[in-house]
Amino acid sequence: MTRVTTFEPNDEPQVVWSSGDVRVSAIRSAHIPGHASYRVDTPAGSVVIGGDAGNDTPAPPRTSSTSEQVEKLAKGVDIIVHSTMHPVMGPDGGSGMPPPIYLRQSSTTDLGAMAKRVGGKHLMLTHMGPSIGADRQGPFRVPGGPLTEAHYRKAVEASGFTGNTIVGTDLASVRLPEK
Question: In terms of pTM, does the model score above 0.90?
Answer without folding.
Answer: yes
